[in-house]
From TrEMBL, chain A:
Entry keywords, A to Z: Endonuclease, Hydrolase, Nuclease
Organism ancestry: Eukaryota, Viridiplantae, Streptophyta, Embryophyta, Tracheophyta
This protein's record includes keyword Nuclease: yes
Protein name: Flap endonuclease 1
From TrEMBL, chain B:
Protein name: DNA sliding clamp PCNA
Family membership noted in the UniProt record: Belongs to the PCNA family.
One BP annotation, GO: mismatch repair
A Pfam family recorded for this sequence: PCNA_N
Lineage: Eukaryota, Viridiplantae, Streptophyta, Embryophyta, Tracheophyta
Location of the Proliferating cell nuclear antigen PCNA N-terminal domain: 1-125
Record organism: Citrus x changshan-huyou
Superkingdom, natural source: Eukaryota
């Protein structure tokens, strides 16, 4: 298997970092989504004027995959080429002549809005269809469960955010050049503080009420996964040493990102910062953080692209469990089984069964047990140690913090003095910028008091039928946006209900485990509070 | 098959001007009783409900309940092409994905056809229960528009309080504060200039002026406006559309948070 086939979430450094590291991928990715306003437009064209083989010599999967869920790397070379070309043709037709090739076949994988022109690539390596695959599966089979929302429309909502994931992203992206990172005078890394500070302010300004959720004890099952990540990191450390010796800049950047590890110190710093900002912090056990896993855990809604920062044109993608179940015609139990089958963090999936197959099997047999009884064991090898029952139990009865004292969730006024002390004196932030940022927090507090209509009126079914009867989802945006790259994605889930007690670990948010490394750059561009060290594109 | 003929075409133009700032895309629902719309703004703070009853149209035909998704800016573009005295006819065929606006000049010497594409819009329809409001204020719509505009130059929010003294609109901003009190006044020459306050219970609520100001774009539709207030309920700002129906705006109040302002412990 080529390396790119390793399920993505096992790789500590998210592949999107690679996209960043490689200028070609970066610009390609850019050109695919931000064509009209891409600041690097001329640069893209220059690169694309090169023969197409050049583009493909690089591992195109990384920059392309996010928009398609299909791993290009795993395809045979000719297929990949067709794919790439047809993709470019649909998204940026003007670039095509420069590629010097015309599309030869029908696009293999074009995710359109309604999901109806999605041509499934039949010979996908199955175990790759992880949670990313779940997104795709839902787009295909339950398009109505996905809804686009404007970033602003989440104001007043309480949003739980996976803090560790955020810190991790910040460490990877904010203010990094090669192996160097943002530091204070004492040489301690401050990237995470910078990122946390600016992002939280952005959420507060939009009137949201963020709650940061820090990982407590990981569930036993997840430890397996964590161990894998650990060994990957160790590999990367070795690779980094090699790269430094060889002086290969691209590799140094790539591998140094992979060695990033969130330490207790980072966590504590962030907790302190957040407390000073008046944002509640919660420590939970059994956090469901791996993006779509949250759905399986019963978060009623789940947001993607929430933090797609300032390029606010991309709508937030909202997933609603109730609708998913309705459209897939599954019960919650079956949905959980489906998720386990198609791969989750807590146990391996069966080789040869991907999302589509899993859905088919679940529909046919109803539960994992019946599937196991009926399945062709020669064709599908069931892992020997396959703790699906435990995984299921974990999803169904997650360990919930019930101690109400621990759950004091309050948004209070920021501690100005404390913040200035912490950020400016201890960590060398620019004091003017910090003061301005504090003003922003205060102004934002006012905004969050606005009530929402849903707290007063409840939705009812509308009796009139649409004049045009179509199964597809609403098509509100211009065709340009039909292809949805997920490069700047960031994910969150929130609960619509006001009650937090008891069910907190269900409303977790995953801050874009995958493709959000670009986010930091945009964040920097827009909102750097003047560390003086950041590299702006 | 849908066919609605509205002699006073300018009415439709005014309706669009009133709501297009608040809502981008919305479903127009047509039934035998009338032409209606319910839509929320993108942040789900304000809601607009429009009703044009079938009796108000010169000709009204609607065979089955249908909803037509439209981008209000586009509708407004279309309607801008109609003259103020034009008769407007709305037509849509079953199963078609377009709607046609036909504009006839009063002298019948010019007929224009504009066809617009419809969209599929996923929208939530909210059930708005009938409620008894604590206080209902009826006042000249121009006066209300003036107050909102003036206050917005000073602050972001308006506190509307109704007591037995009258209705008070107040705001506070960086440069200072403003208070406007209106008393009940029924001794006027024209009934539409009266200010009538019906109060069952004193009430005081805070609203974002930005939304109030966008509601006042409906002022050309009616000489009077009715503001219904109840604590724990969104305010209703209603403009009656002569002999046809109404346009109602609902706005969720600002909520005072009961939190202790003590500095967090670190």
């Amino acid at each position: 298997m080529p390396r790119a086939c390793v399920p993505q979430r096992l790789v500590p450094a998210r592949p999107s970092c690679l996209a960043l590291a490689c200028p070609l991928h970066y610009t390609l990715a850019h050109s695919l989504r931000l064509m009209p306003t891409c600041p690097l437009h001329s640069c893209c064209c220059k690169i694309l004027r090169a023969p197409p083989t050049h583009a493909l010599a690089h591992d195109a999967s990384y920059c392309l995959r996010p928009c398609h869920s299909v791993r290009f790397a795993a395809m045979p070379q000719p297929t990949r080429q067709t794919c790439l070309v047809s993709m470019l043709a649909t998204s940026t037709p003007m670039l095509l002549p420069r590629l010097g090739t015309r599309p030869q076949a029908k696009p293999l994988a074009l995710m359109t809005h309604g999901g109806d022109t999605y041509h499934h690539q039949p010979k996908l390596p199955h175990h790759e269809v992880d949670n990313e695959g779940l997104t795709k599966l839902l787009a295909d089979n339950a398009p109505k469960s996905m809804k686009e929302q404007k970033f602003e429309s989440y104001f007043g909502r309480k949003i739980a955010i996976d803090a560790s994931m955020s810190i991790y992203q910040f460490l990877i992206v904010v203010g990094r050049t090669g192996t160097e990172m943002l530091t204070n005078e004492a040489g301690e890394v401050t990237s995470h503080l910078q990122g946390m500070f600016t992002r939280t302010i952005r959420l507060l300004e939009a009137g949201m009420k963020p709650i940061y959720v820090f990982d407590g004890q990981p569930p036993d099952l997840k430890k397996q996964e964590l161990a894998k990540r650990y060994s990957k990191r160790a590999d990367a450390t070795d690779d980094l040493a090699e790269a430094v010796e060889a002086g290969n800049k691209e590799d140094i950047e790539k591998f140094s990102k992979r060695t990033v590890k969130v330490t207790k110190q980072h966590n504590d710093d962030c907790k302190r910062l957040l407390k000073l900002m008046g944002v509640p912090v919660v420590e939970v056990y059994a956090v469901a953080s791996e993006d779509m896993d949250s759905l399986t855990f019963g978060a009623p809604r789940f947001l993607r692209h929430l933090m797609d920062p300032s390029s606010r044109k991309i709508p937030v993608m909202e997933f609603e469990v109730a609708k998913i179940l309705e459209e897939l015609n599954l019960t919650m139990d079956q949905f959980i089984d489906l998720c386990i089958l198609s791969g989750c963090d807590y146990c391996d999936s069966i080789r040869g069964i991907g999302g589509q197959t899993a859905l088919k099997l679940i529909r046919q047999h109803g539960s994992i047990e019946t599937i196991l009884e009926n399945i062709n064991r020669e064709r599908y090898q069931i892992p020997e140690d396959w703790p699906y029952q435990e995984a299921r139990r974990l999803f169904k009865e997650p360990e919930v913090v019930t101690d109400e004292e621990q759950l004091q969730i309050k948004w209070s006024a920021p501690d100005e003095e404390g913040l200035i002390n912490f950020l400016v004196s201890e960590n060398g932030f620019n004091s003017d910028r910090v003061t301005k940022a504090i003003e922003k927090i205060k102004a934002a507090k006012n905004k969050s008091s606005q009530g929402r209509l849903e707290s007063f009126f409840k939705p009812v079914a509308n009796t009139s039928a649409p004049i045009k009867r179509k199964g597809s989802k609403c098509v509100l945006q211009s065709p340009k946006q039909e292809i949805k790259p997920r490069i700047f994605s960031l994910q969150a889930c929130y609960s619509s209900g006001p009650k937090l007690n008891g069910g907190l670990c269900l409303l977790t948010l995953d801050l874009g485990s995958k493709h959000s490394s670009l986010l930091g750059r945009v964040l920097l561009e827009e909102q750097c509070i003047g560390c003086g060290l950041c590299m702006v594109l | 098959m849908l066919e609605l003929r509205l002699v006073q075409g300018s009415l439709l133009k005014k309706v669009l001007e009133a709501i297009k700032e608040l809502v981008n895309d919305a479903n127009f629902d047509c039934s035998a009783t009338g032409f209606s719309l319910q839509a929320m703004d993108s942040s789900h703070v304000a809601l607009v409900a429009l009703l044009l009853r079938s009796e108000g149209f010169e000709h009204y035909r609607c065979d089955r309940n249908i909803s037509m998704g439209m981008n209000l800016n586009n509708v407004s573009k279309m309607l801008k092409c109609a003259g103020n005295d034009d008769i407007i006819t709305l037509k849509a065929d079953d199963g078609s994905d377009t709607v046609t606006f036909m504009f006839e000049s009063p002298t019948q010497d010019k007929i224009a056809d504009f066809e617009m594409k419809l969209m599929d819009i996923d929208s939530e329809h909210l059930g708005i229960p009938e409620a008894e409001y604590h206080a209902i204020v009826r006042m000249p719509s121009a006066e209300f528009a003036r107050i909102c505009k003036d206050l917005a130059s000073i602050g972001d929010t308006v506190v509307i309080s109704v007591t037995k003294e009258g209705v008070k609109f107040s705001t506070r901003g960086d440069i200072g504060t403003a208070n406007i009190v209106l008393r009940q006044n029924t001794t006027v020459d024209k009934p539409e200039e009266a200010t009538i306050i019906e109060m069952h219970e004193p009430v005081s609520l805070t609203f974002a002026l930005r939304y109030m100001n966008s509601f006042t774009r409906a002022t050309p539709l009616s000489n009077t406006v009715t503001i219904s207030l109840s604590s724990e309920l969104p305010v209703v700002v209603e403009y009656k559309i002569a002999e046809m129906g109404y346009i109602r705006f609902y706005l969720a109040p600002k909520i005072e948070e009961d939190e202790d302002e003590t500095k967090p412990q670190v």
